[in-house]
Amino acid sequence: MTLHYDPIPVLESVGYTEREAAFLYLVARHSGYFLRRQYGRFIQRERGAIAAQLLRKAVALGHLQSVACGQARFVYHLTSKEVYAAVGLAASQHRRLKGDAQIKSRLMVLDFVLDHLDDSILDSSDVKLDFFTQTLGLSEALLPSSPGGGAHRFPEEFPILIERKRSVRFSFFDEGALSTSGFESFLRRYRAVFAALPGFELLYLADSGHNFERAAKIFAALYPEARALGVTSMTPSGVDHFLEYLHAYENNETQKRPITLRDLAVLREGEHIYTTLEHQALCAAWQIGSTSAERIRQRFQQQGPQAKFTSILMPYNYPLYQFRRERKPQPQLGSSARSSGVPLFQQEASQKQLLTKGGE
Q: Domain count of the chain?
């Protein structure tokens, strides 16, 4: 979503300072959760009264709730629908309470974003969709979607770094999983878009090196093996699938043999993948016999993405205790009662009120 106004002044209109508003903007965009030390990192200050001022203010406004982690440690959760609406994310799921692993993952994402404030980051699904389809010209069908075939693109909501306009660095966050099954599922969902790029880098981030070796081997099993499989932007499912499609397409046109269920399945898949003029030309050449399986293999197996895998050990600490259920704000953060008569958010472009009370 492209905002037609600056959300920072909108947040300031409630009473936040400029840097408080900027930090809450980052939290809303990238994580929904934060630690006190992360605000300290953002403002380049150690712990002290400045962080406490933000916490008291956000709690008093009803925008923030705390999650107890044990031994007087807390994670802070931005829950206000109005704050998310103010930054253009009214439908964000970040304000929903998540499980332990998901909360830690979101905290890791925020640390990563704080490490890359000067870089170009694709954050929301809409921004990513626009970049890959409009800027890079990829088909939306190649982009990863929710498990089970849902319509939501880039469901992990992991940031993607863009360098020199077209150099793409994907990220995967290991929140301390005992196995790499989640990473393997991630690679399967992203394989088509990886194949469509001339090159990319995948950053594997964790606060422990426990899974680094295993993850690197899993990645190496796919790349540079992609060249041998003929996985390219034109053949994202591999050259064998394209050849299977050509056989099914020819048979559907000529009826030389009965059409099988597998033929129908491949044709349905191919309708969404093999759509370019070049694909059409290859289909025509296949039908008249001016090309062969050997020529097509040679063509696509010489191509393939230049893939790089980088494991990164994040030098930050996260609460090690089980997250407890979300609770009401505590007295040490300020008044737990919502303020009445608090200035309303004002969208400067339209002077439209965005909330009438504190958030949920």
A: 3
> Is residue 224 reached through a cis peptide bond, with omega within 30 degrees of 0 on the bond before it?
yes
What is the reported pTM?
A: 0.69
Structure tokens at 234: 């034109």
| Structure confidence by residue, pLDDT tens digits, 308-350 | 889 999 999 888 655 554 455 444 443 333 333 343 344 443 3
Nearest of 166, 188, 180 to residue 210 by alpha carbon = 180
Q: Which residues, 6+ apart, have CB-to-CB distance to 131 below 8 Å?
A: 122, 162
Please tell me the predicted confidence (pLDDT) of residue 256.
79
Residues 6 or more apart in contact with residue 111 via CB below 8 angstroms: 38, 41, 314, 316
Domain assignment of residue 233, yes or no: no
**In the structure encoding, which two tokens stand for residue 274, read together?**
């093999």
Residues in the chain where the model's pLDDT stays below 70: 1-5, 46-48, 148-151, 165, 224-229, 302-305, 320-360
What is the rounded distance in angstroms from the CA atom of residue 107 to the CA atom of residue 115? Answer: 13
Q: Is residue 334 part of a domain?
A: yes
Rounded to an integer, what distance in angstroms lies between the CA atom of residue 68 and that of residue 323?
A: 6
Q: Residue 13: what pLDDT? A: 87
Q: Give the single-character DSSP code of 208.
A: S
Structural domain for 162, as ranges:
120-223+305-313
Nearest C-alpha neighbor of 327 from the set 110, 106, 101, 74: 74
Distance CA 242, CA 234 (A): 9
Cα angle 316, 160, 181; round to 5: 70
Same domain, 45 and 126: no
CA distance 46 to 67: 22
Range 17-22 contact pairs with CB under 8 angstroms and sequence separation of 24 or more: 19/43, 20/53, 20/54, 20/57
pLDDT of residue 299: 83
Question: Is residue 215 domain-resident?
Answer: yes
pLDDT at 198: 80
d(CA 196, CA 232): 6
Instruction: Give the whole-angstrom CA distance, residue 329 versus residue 199.
Output: 47
Q: How many CA atoms lie within 13 A of 222 on its CB side?
A: 27
